[in-house]
Write a structure and sequence with these properties.
Blueprint lengths: L12 H34 L13 H34 L6 E8 L2 E5 L5 E3 L1 E5 L3 E8 L4 E5 L4 E5 L5 E6 L4 E7 L11 E7 L1 H9 L7 H11 L2 H5 L16 E3 L5 E3 L2 H9 L22 H21 L1
Parallel strand pairs: 1-5, 4-10
Antiparallel strand pairs: 1-2, 2-3, 5-8, 6-7, 6-9, 9-10, 11-12
Helix pairs in contact: 1-2, 4-7
Bound molecules: dinuclear copper ion.
Amino acid sequence: MSGFPIFPGEASTQAVSTDHITAGLTVLAAIIVLVVFGLVVGFAFRYRNGSRAKRGDLPEWVARDVEIGWTAATAFLALFIVWWTIAASLGSLAPQPGAMEIHVLAKQWMWKTEHPNGAREINALHVPMGEPVRLMMTSQDVIHSFYVPQFRIKQDVLPGRYTHTWFEATKLGTFHLFCTQLCGTEHARMVGDVVVMRPEDYARWSAAQPQGDDIAADGASLFHTLGCAGCHLGSAVHAPQLAGLYGKPVQLADGRSVVADDAFIRDMILKPKANVPAGYEPIMPSFSGLVGDDEILALTAYIRSLKDARETRG
Ligand code: CUA
């Protein structure tokens, strides 16, 4: 499929499976077209005006068995296609264990990316080849969509919530990144480059970035300047301690149980009254309008790092 000139080359593991599906469905459709067209032409010829072909009724059992047979066969085929394509799509949503996490912040009209060590880029993303990379994406304004044709990945990026996708690059080189959601006058210029490097080159590249400071360290200083530490780091106020919280289920006062993930932390910062944990008073103020998406990412990274700290200690 990749040799076919109108197709962009395959440069990720998903590209291969997506192209298998495209090729499979094309072949299947071609077979169906040929069979139907062949029957149309064949019958038109056989039963043409003046031909002596027998036109009597078929025996009852032939009519019935043929009907049951083709209905069952097409139903089975349709279910197979559903299973095949859904399994592939779900695979692109499932988190990859051990994937490198990169934050993507979209805004009119640029892509900002942030690496685990705090390195930041604009309209560019350097990644190592052969390693799964998970993108956690959010938008500062309107809906954008992150699309890398040669990776066959495309995921909408929404304001006010996180969306995820992952890929594993299989080729070295520079690949186009596009925004595929009409997001304003400069939408067509909201493009970038995904640069796939050898893992050792990536390590060298990322160590050499000027923004070597950790996002979690930014988050830690925000945690103090915004006053979070006043309640959440042992004090007279009864507030949840955050060490070891990330990724764990939280029991809420209204009976729901939610997992303390990025989306939950974001909600807690912006709309604390909507998710009061069981056993606590709804006294946390909202930071909506006070913190931007960059700062929420940093705070989340800090809270996640508290989890890591506890695990290494215990
Ligand atoms: Cu962002 Cu189009």
